[in-house]
Amino acid sequence: MSGQPDTHHEESFWRKYIFSIDHKVIGLQYGITALIFLFFGFCLMMMMRWQLAYPEQPMPWFGWLFGETGVMLPEMYNSLGAMHGTVMIFLGVVPLAVGAFGNYFVPLQIGAPDMAFPKLNMTSYWCYFAGGIVMMVGFFVPGGAANSGWTSYPPLADIATTGQTVWLFGMVLLITSSLLGSINTITTIVQLRAKGLTWMRLPFFVWSQFVTAFLLLLAFPPLEAAGVLQLMDRLLDTSFFLPSGLIVSGEVLNVSGGGSPLLWQHMFWFLAHPEVYVLILPAMGIVAEVLSNNTRKPLWGYKSIVYASSFLGFMSFIVWAHHMFMTGMGSTISAFFQTTTMIISVPSVVILTAMFISLWGASIRYNSAMLFALGFLPMFGIGGLTGLPLGIAASDIHLHDTYYVIGHFHYVVAPGTIFALFAGVYYWFPKMTGKTLNETLGKIHFWLSMIFINGIFMPMFVQGLAGVSRRLWDGGASYAHATDTLWLNEVMSASAWLLGLAQIPFIYNLIKSMKSGEKAESNHWDATTLEWTDAPSPPLPHRNFEVIPEVYRGPYEYSVPGADKDFTPQSEA
Amino acid sequence: MSGHSVEDIKKSVKVYIGVFAALAVLTVVTVAASYLDLSSGEAFFLAIIIASVKGTLVAGYFMHLFSEKTTVLAVLGLTFFFLIVIMFLPFMAFTDQAVI
Amino acid sequence: MEIPYNVEERQDTGMFNAKLGIWLFLASEVMLFGGLFSAYVFLRMGDVTGTFISGASELNIPLATFNTLVLISSSVTMIMSWVSLKLGEQKKFKTYLGTTLLLAGVFLVVKYFEYTAKFHHGIFPETSTFFAIYFTLTGLHMLHIIGGMVVIFYFLVPGSKMMNTESERFTNRIEIVGLYWHFVDLVWIFLFPVLYLL
What we know:
The complex is a heterotrimer of chains A (573), B (100) and C (198).
Chain A: H1 13-18, H2 23-53, H3 74-109, H4 118-137, H5 156-159, H6 163-191, H7 204-236, E1 247-248, E2 251-252, H8 261-295, H9 302-315, H10 331-358, H11 368-385, H12 388-391, H13 393-399, H14 403-433, H15 439-465, H16 488-502, H17 504-516, H18 530-533
Antiparallel strand pairs in A: 1-2
Helix pairs in contact in A: 2-3, 2-4, 2-16, 3-4, 3-6, 3-7, 3-8, 3-14, 4-6, 6-7, 7-8, 7-9, 8-11, 8-14, 9-10, 10-11, 11-14, 11-15, 14-15, 15-16, 15-17
Chain B: H1 6-34, H2 40-62, H3 70-99
Chain C: H1 17-45, H2 51-57, H3 61-86, H4 90-120, H5 129-156, H6 162-165, H7 167-197
Helix pairs in contact in C: 1-5, 1-7, 3-4, 3-7, 4-5, 5-7
């Protein structure tokens, strides 16, 4: 189950860059692919925003995508919506957070020469890549890509066009990929920690990847099972999710019946709720690294953060049915899930509070990475706190499936997780490439993103509280409740397009700096963790370190009283 | 497995044969029990108990779980807990619904 | 550079890498089959027309009992092959591993006859939710058997050279394969009563 990379002779181009088994190359492959998918998913959303702001008007420039009239049809809108969710979560954010950053920096931070199973690592990337391709193929089959929402609720998904089948095959590949990845991550962290690197000396980023890997490992299989069942329904005419006597287009559906759509919802949300923490935990891990480095102080309450994140991971498995309050669940079971949901907010608050307190009394270095990390804190705070009314069964009745929900989880994922990922890019770019990013461009990128992203999501709370449903193709134009808040659609759409423009400095910065950026020192940020203190920038191919380091202290020993410099590396005896 | 000397292994072969015999007997027992005139609840519990005993034998002896490292046991403990969750919470949600 | 603890055990965890890896994989497999068993329970609870009871009565219990015994035997030969390797008896190892492969083949043949008999009687996955879950669960289990057979065949013929070159690593690999194989057996131990007897 393993391979020994041979460092002595030259590798061919294919072995070195394409089918590489070096975790750093695979991490970069993940990173680049995921960034492209993130941008693609963002484009899908920008097209949807045109339709929402100016319903049934021909789209300028890109109208040809929707046939001669240039008007987006409802089916197309549904496809874009389903694929936006799928692409952003399964092809964009998770691969970037776990596949790219996890793959690249977990072995470096624990002082390992590579992941435990390099070949498995490569397989994992190529499964992900194949899954992405399959998902994209969906756009070209008759009837278009999957259009039953990223949640693929049956019975709708069972009777949807071919795109749904393609979506399911894509998901099976993506699930396989993350399964292989999580096995690799856990084994690496348990087995390959450097000498002296005990559990309580691990950087929090490693902890967050560890918990995340467990969520992926144990929560994804039931969705894979559910995906197989839905495939059976679609291809072999079984009725796992189809109740008896279902009427479609005025005719009773010719199936045996006896199934239950709720079964899918249970199995889907059993994954999809932990998935939320898969999105947020690595983000917290990155923010912890950046915060502590730029406050030049130890992370406040390291141990409580570690325990809180483990508890968070554990609890995330028993809260899923708060997505299902409206399915007619009885009050007893609703009360159970409502209670666990309230409990799970506690560890999130512990982590966020500890991060805020870490700022107290620090002389903060405001570089681009730190700005994004600082932006993460209130944005994730808003996202988290607006989730509470959704977790309470009574208030969920009003808010369910409105734009309020969209606003809530986008605050968690977009200005939350994606900001943290940007922070990660700015923080680790010098390590990955040996070059530095332009700070001015980075700051422009941050401030513009910060303004426009709030311009998109803040009005959603207003619309949602007014009762605008999230699934309306015309953005609520034909909806009586919506009339007072309809003007916000244009505000949100304009913000979305401007947010798109605000990414230009970032993309330019990445390409420009990679080519001709200033050379970075190996410990560019005066950090304490192993990837900075013991590995060159970029780290050595296939073995990372000249000499595998030993660890003598905790991860965040900044400004230790009496020390000769304001950081004490973990590997310093 | 450094802890396995030649004598240890020879001893464990006898255990494996014993487990095999127990598994075969239990298979016959569970089939025979299914022909008894039991209520569906009794039949269910009997079948699940026999299957669990067989499963424990396989996992404990063939897969060496009885002498496995704590890391593995911890992972499996966690998995087992979530297995119970996925098995029973949807089922409980179902019964709660049916009352309405 | 060599990846540490590929063959030898790490002191504080007492494991080589692949040992933990396979157990993590099996943990995810537990959740995969757990999800399907959960679906079984859920569908059975909602089964008002009694298709689960009438469906199960159409299954062939003697054949399945025979298959259970076949699979248990294959588990024993699997572990005996590992024992033989530990004791350095390479010939015995090959015999036992070959028998495991053979028994797995027998299982598949029996399963083939079971399936075709159902098809001849006009019973397909779409017949009822019981047969839908029956074919899904047994089909997925069969895929696991086939996957295991491929791996066993690999170690029996093309991969067996490692037995002499890196004997400790090879023994580790056989142990890993064994763990997987016992798990497949374990799943069947639960599938059998749940599908056929209840």
